[in-house]
Amino acid sequence: MSDAIISIQGVTKRFGEVTAVERVDLDIRAGEFFALLGPSGCGKTTLLRMLAGFEQPSEGRILIGGQDMTGVQPNHRPVNMVFQSYAVFPHMTVFDNVAYGLKVAHTPRGEIAPRVKEALAMVQLSGYEARKPDQLSGGQRQRVALARALVKRPKVLLLDEPLSALDAKLREAMQIELVRLQQTVGITFVIVTHDQDEALSMADRIAVMESGHVRQVASPQTLYEFPSGRFVADFIGKMNLFEGKVVAREAAGLSVEVEGLGRLELPADERAPAPGRAVGIAVRPEKVELTRSAPPEGSVARRGTVTQVAYYGDVSYVFLDLEDGPALNANVINDERAAEPHFVKGETLWAAWNPRDFLVLGE
Amino acid sequence: MAGRLTSLLGFGRDEPIGPLDYGRRWWMRLIVGLTFVFLYAPIVVLIAYSFNDSRRNIVWVRFTTDWYVKAIHDQSLLVAFGNSLTIAIINTLLSTVLGTLTALLLWRFRFPLRPVYEGAIALPIVIPEICMGVAMMAFFAWIGWPNDLPWPISLSNIVIAHVAFSFPFVAVIIRARLAGFNRELEDAAKDLGATEWRTLLDIIVPYLKPALVAGALISFTLSLDDFVITFFTAGPDTITLPVKIFSMVRFSVTPEVNAASTVLVVITVVTTVLALRLQNAGQKAGSSG
Ligand SMILES: Nc1ncnc2c1ncn2[C@@H]1O[C@H](COP(=O)(O)OP(=O)(O)O)[C@@H](O)[C@H]1O
Ligand SMILES: [Mg+2]
């Protein structure tokens, strides 16, 4: 709590009938790269706009740097935003765009030029001062928007889907650059994205949102390996999900009956539902091991037929139909040069798991 | 037959005419040509005879600029022209400001009956001018507007009438431009520390500039060549150029009238072309950002 630069406390936002954000509690720490991740329409932008001051919470309050922001207008908040459309002022040069926030704040004239220069250098746009926005590419316009916000030296930089308008190559380069930039300036970044790869690769911590609620706040690895529920498990990464029923829940282990997989003996899990209750059993594709020969004693293994192989270069996705019905997706890393695919459509394989890699998900 | 006609007219080309190549079909070209003739022939004749060295607009004698010299020395014509320009300039200032504020209000705020206001704004554009004129006359008679005010106050009732019918044009032009405004630009300015007022001056007004110029030029030309509404609102002693031309024509169409009209045509055409060009330029520049 003490090192939280942003503290969102019981915030709800309604637009007439629509509840865009519902009872959100969230602390963002000083200096961290924080991501708000969720599908389109889940309320990410609304939450970000409440931080910037463009929307006022219907309920709850927001503290920034320990100060209650209720009723504080956007131009008086210690945060700056990079907009989804970049919102670079079309009638101003790059220099004037970046200098604008300093001018309206009555920064001494002698201080403006060096600070603009420094900000432009930070985003690698030195030499572009005299250009007009229509002479810049999309990526360059975004850098102007970044420089324009950073030059104000905000406590927090807010970014709304900053990479969604860029093409794939540029997006990847920009992901790395944004992280580098954040580490250089040491400012807290809060980024909104619907792209899980973006969030996973860039953020220190991620809040996963679904229809106005925050479902889980955790590090990328925790989100991926220990999702708190079905939504997060399904939304982040790829997942094989099976339906089952708890048979026994004891200190020694958890016993579940899974449709198509039969009885599974899993490690103890005190958060699992009570015996007799329905449960979801999930496993990531890369945790499935495919072999032609029967797997060793002790591992959980089932036989299945390959229905499709999707080749992605570094990995191949193998789709199987298990003997007892359910479909299964497994990843094979192509870590050796080979002219022929590892597995082919139609062949029968063993799919094996370590019981520890199964996720137990409540309803 | 048709083929021979087209090649005679120089339209014939070797490639076959595509289904959408209407511009290459002889009958299309004929219609377009005739339209231009009917639209512009009278104006061309008017301008031509203003340079004709003859009292009567019947036969061409020789080129002269005498009628322009004569028009410049006609005191009452000059007074009328001065009145017209004064009215047009004041009208332009007032209706540009009023029209812009109206458009901003309709764009920016939500209030009860807003669609009704949006529709009502367009009314002066569609109401027949003669009705506007009669209504204005009745209005000024009803409030007992004095007729014996000193110049230029004496022009104020005409200015009021002109503002009433030209500011909606400005409002419509500005409103259309605002529809394409990226609201995030406004948010960005506030986010960087600007107040509402600075955001308006620094971001919205520059964005509106082409529409502001176009609106101003259009209200200028509307006012400058307005006859009907001015005729009904003008007091007995205030005369504008179109009203003066009308009164001169009642006696006879002299080349002097042609000269005065040509001046009016040139001013109107130049301003309109400028307005259109600025609006097009604005549409191109406004799409970025
Ligand atoms: N100004 C607004 N007026 C009405 N509804 C809105 C407004 N802004 C957002 N919403 C609604 O709130 C929900 C969340 O929107 P948003 O925060 O933009 O989602 P996201 O950024 O996650 O895609 C959506 O259902 C959207 O339609
Ligand atoms: Mg959004």
UniProtKB/TrEMBL annotation, chain A:
The keyword ATP-binding applies. Residues 6-236 form the ABC transporter domain. It catalyses: ATP + H2O + polyamine-[polyamine-binding protein]Side 1 = ADP + phosphate + polyamineSide 2 + [polyamine-binding protein]Side 1. One of its GO terms (molecular function) is ABC-type putrescine transporter activity. Keywords: ATP-binding, Cell membrane, Membrane, Nucleotide-binding, Translocase, Transport. Its EC number is 7.6.2.11. SUPFAM superfamilies: MOP-like (SSF50331), P-loop containing nucleoside triphosphate hydrolases (SSF52540). InterPro entries: AAA+_ATPase (IPR003593), ABC_SmlMolc_Importer (IPR050093), ABC_transporter-like_ATP-bd (IPR003439), ABC_transporter-like_CS (IPR017871), Mo/tungstate-bd_C_term_dom (IPR008995), P-loop_NTPase (IPR027417), PotA-like (IPR005893), PotA_ATP-bd (IPR017879). It is an enzyme of class 7 (translocase). It comes from the Bacteria. One of its GO terms (cellular component) is ATP-binding cassette (ABC) transporter complex. Gene3D superfamilies: 2.40.50.100, P-loop containing nucleotide triphosphate hydrolases. Belongs to the ABC transporter superfamily. Spermidine/putrescine importer (TC 3.A.1.11.1) family. Part of the ABC transporter complex PotABCD involved in spermidine/putrescine import. Responsible for energy coupling to the transport system. The complex is composed of two ATP-binding proteins (PotA), two transmembrane proteins (PotB and PotC) and a solute-binding protein (PotD). This is Spermidine/putrescine import ATP-binding protein PotA. The lineage of its organism: Bacteria, Pseudomonadati, Pseudomonadota, Alphaproteobacteria, Rhodospirillales. The gene is potA.
Automatic annotation (TrEMBL), chain B:
GO terms for biological process: transmembrane transport. GO terms for cellular component: plasma membrane. Residues 81-275 form the ABC transmembrane type-1 domain. InterPro entries: Bact_Polyamine_Transport (IPR051789), MetI-like (IPR000515), MetI-like_sf (IPR035906). It is found in: Cell membrane. It is a multi-pass membrane protein. Belongs to the binding-protein-dependent transport system permease family. CysTW subfamily. Pfam families: BPD_transp_1. It comes from Tistlia consotensis USBA 355. It comes from the Bacteria. The keyword Cell membrane applies. This is Spermidine/putrescine transport system permease protein.
